[in-house]
Design goal:
The protein is mostly helical. The protein is built from 36 helices and four strands. It has helices spanning 2-13, 16-21, 24-31, 51-55, 64-67, 89-96, 99-105, 114-118, 136-147, 150-153, 161-168, 170-176, 185-189, 209-214, 218-226, 228-234, 243-247, 264-271, 273-276, 280-285, 291-296, 299-305, 314-318, 338-343, 368-407, 419-443, 448-452, 457-484, 486-495, 499-514, 527-551, 553-556, 563-593, 603-606, 611-617, 619-623; strands spanning 37-40, 43-46, 414-415, 608-609. The chain has a two-stranded antiparallel ribbon with strand order 1-2. The chain has a two-stranded antiparallel sheet with strand order 3-4. The longest helix has 40 residues, at 368-407. The chain is elongated and about 125 Å long.
Length: 655
């Protein structure tokens, strides 16, 4: 009986005729079992098919053998690969010409196939179904399942940023809000025949972009095609902009969005400038350059730079998509149309109002108004240089004479800085100003700092390094001076902060703010002088360490990551800004602009200070009889070291 049952099974159940007669329901009697598995390519793979999902799929109308053709018996091993082309020849043919199929041919892993976009074949839904992966509402996320995943895209050399940029765009946001007409991936890239932007048949090939965008923006595309840019594209001039050059590619935003490349501020600042500011168009096609910078110098440009939202920008006069050359009678900047164009912002503007240049490109202007402006410019530049130069000379002579008279005052008998300290201070001062000028000239090569050095990068670089070496050398000298001389060690003790310094700060502010509180009494150094001294020490250390890292960045990167050098550069720059402003705001006030010392505290030149000023600024030092040891009998007297001669503050120079 056993052999009879076997023969019956082979003839009836497992015969090809029987299989051909079976329906999908018959196949699902086995394949609906969740535990059903099979060895495929050496791996145990589930061959379970969800009966309910299959019955609601777009393929439910077909029998299994319609797709799984070639099955001749049971068990059917191996299962022939499903060929979608037998039902969808056009779609498969287009897909095979696209980038995904070509990537698969090159052996690229994780490239998209039919099921990647349409879903599992046994659960595939029609695109009209809301839950379908290819429904317009879901299509962005379907593409993003690959194009938004780093480990899928980056090994093939592609970025995931386009996907995330699209999601933030005006199109992506509209789709999220439920729009069924906003552009999705397939509207620009096509659905199956997806090609690269270098392919002339691609809808995103530069010369095809206007037509692609025109599928949705028909009226705008017609305007663009008639414009100077559209005509240039028709003639094959790749330098001419298309939609994506101004609006962006994936990150397209509404013009009212401040971050959009076509916002009113961006149009005048960057978007038009990327083509019309340089000389490339001038050299290739004779289109005038420097149009954006000349606009920025005009009334409209200055108003825009100051934050005006109503001042005219490029599009206000030239149009948006319908930009035409000024010689075209239909152009908004044609001579006959200028009154109407200007009148849009300036009601009542007539022909005389239009007789002037918007782009104040004076060297290129030839009409009488521009020539007169050039004459006025030359006259006033000469007048400004002459008059202001004479004023500086006049006041400089007077200021210097007054400062010299103040230095010779009879009561300047206190030695505030000895010779050693003055030399250190002078070298520090000189190196600091050289570092400021050369450093900011390096950071801003087009600034007036650079012009002071003749715009020579070599002078800036070498000058900066020489000054840095001088400052570091002075720092080492000062360290030795403070540690190994009597005056230096006393200076360290006097510069140390005490609790009373904080009280002095509060009391001093109350004294000058209200006037009813007595002024605090300071010793040899006030809290301000102490803070300035230790800030100087801190600044030299920080600038020295970071400067050496920048100077020897290759050697430094042998021990630490390269980004340490970038951090050093940031610290170096902002510490330089802080130090420069501190010298201008704090130190120069103390030395020059303080009414008690004006026109200048000359102690940094000859080391001397008036006894009256010393008693006023440092009364505690007077009470401790400190200045009695430092007082000279005669500032100009030649001494021999006896009483009343060289003050003890200078004796450390002899040690």
């Amino acid at each position: 009986m056993r052999w009879f049952a076997t023969v019956l099974y082979l003839l009836v159940v497992a015969s090809p005729l029987h299989l051909a007669a079976q329906s999908s329901s018959d196949c699902l009697d086995c394949h609906s079992d969740p535990s059903l598995t099979k060895e495929i390519d050496g791996r145990t793979t589930s061959v379970h098919v969800d009966r309910d999902r299959f019955n609601t799929s777009v393929h439910a109308m077909f029998d299994c053998v319609d797709c799984h053709a070639g099955i001749t018996g049971y068990p059917h091993d191996p299962v022939p690969k499903v060929d979608c082309a037998q039902c969808h020849p056009d779609a498969v043919g287009a897909f095979e010409a696209g980038v995904h199929a070509k990537a698969a041919e090159r052996g690229v892993r994780n490239t998209a196939a039919c099921a990647s976009c349409h879903g599992a074949p046994h659960e595939m839904l029609a695109s009209s179904e809301p839950k379908s992966k290819t429904n317009r509402v879901n299509l962005t996320e379907t593409c993003g399942s690959c194009h938004g995943v780093r480990f899928v895209m980056e090994p093939s050399g592609f970025s995931v940023q386009p996907f995330f940029s699209y999601r933030e765009s005006v199109h992506g946001r509209a789709v999220v809000e439920g729009s069924t007409t906003a552009a999705v991936c397939i509207d620009c890239h096509d659905s199956h025949d997806i090609r690269t932007a270098r392919d002339p048949e691609s809808p995103i090939f530069k010369f095809n972009v206007p037509e692609t965008c025109g599928n949705c923006h028909e009226s705008v595309a017609r305007e663009f095609q008639q414009s100077v840019h559209g005509k240039a594209i028709e003639r094959g001039r790749g330098q001419s902009p298309v939609c994506t050059d101004c609006h962006g590619i994936h990150m397209i935003k509404a013009h009212i969005d401040p971050t959009s490349s076509v916002s009113s501020q961006a149009v005048a600042r960057t978007t038009c400038a990327q083509c019309h500011e340089g000389v490339r168009l001038t050299q290739e096609f004779g289109v005038a350059g420097r149009k954006v910078s000349s606009y920025r110098d005009s009334y409209h440009g200055l108003a825009r730079r100051l934050g005006s939202d109503v001042a005219a920008n490029c599009a206000s006069c030239h149009g948006v998509h319908n930009i035409l050359p000024s010689a075209d009678p239909a152009s908004t900047i044609h001579r006959e149309n200028l009154a109407a164009t200007c009148g849009a912002c300036h009601p009542g503007a007539g022909e005389n109002f239009t007789r002037g240049r918007v782009h104040l490109d004076i060297p290129a202007a030839e009409e009488i108004g521009s020539r007169i402006i050039r004459w006025i410019r030359s006259f006033y530049l000469t007048l400004i240089i002459g008059v202001i130069g004479a004023m500086l000379l006049h006041n400089g002579i007077i200021w210097w004479r007054k400062a010299a008279i103040a230095r010779k005052a009879a009561d300047r008998t206190i030695i505030r800085m000895n010779r050693n300290q003055r030399i250190q201070h002078f070298l520090l001062l000189a190196s600091f100003f050289v570092l400021v000028i050369t450093g900011f000239a390096l950071a801003y090569p087009e600034s007036w700092f650079a012009l002071l050095l003749g715009s020579s990068e070599t002078v800036r670089r070498i000058g900066h390094r020489v000054a840095a070496v001088v400052m570091l050398a002075v720092g080492v000298w000062h360290l030795g001076y403070m540690l190994f001389t009597r005056e230096g060690r006393q200076g360290i003790r006097d510069f140390m902060f005490r609790m009373h310094d904080l009280r002095d700060l509060v009391t001093n502010m109350r004294h000058y703010a209200r006037g009813s509180v007595p002024r605090p009494k300071f010793g040899r150094f006030s809290y301000g002088e102490k803070a300035e001294y230790w800030a100087l020490v801190w600044g030299i250390v920080v600038m020295g360490v970071t400067g050496i890292m920048l100077w020897y960045k290759v050697g430094v990167s042998a021990f630490v990551p390269r980004w340490w050098v970038d951090i050093a550069l940031a610290i170096h720059f902002y510490e330089a800004v802080l130090a420069t402003l501190a010298i201008i705001v704090w130190h120069l006030y103390q030395v020059i602009f303080d009414p008690d010392v004006y026109p200048m505290n000359a102690a940094w030149i000859d080391g001397r200070m008036s006894r009256r000023l010393f008693e006023h600024e440092h009364p505690l030092a007077v009470e401790a009889e400190v200045p009695l040891e430092h007082e000279l009998r005669d500032p100009d007297e030649q001494t021999d070291g006896k009483e009343g001669g060289q003050p003890p503050a200078d004796r450390d120079d002899e040690e």
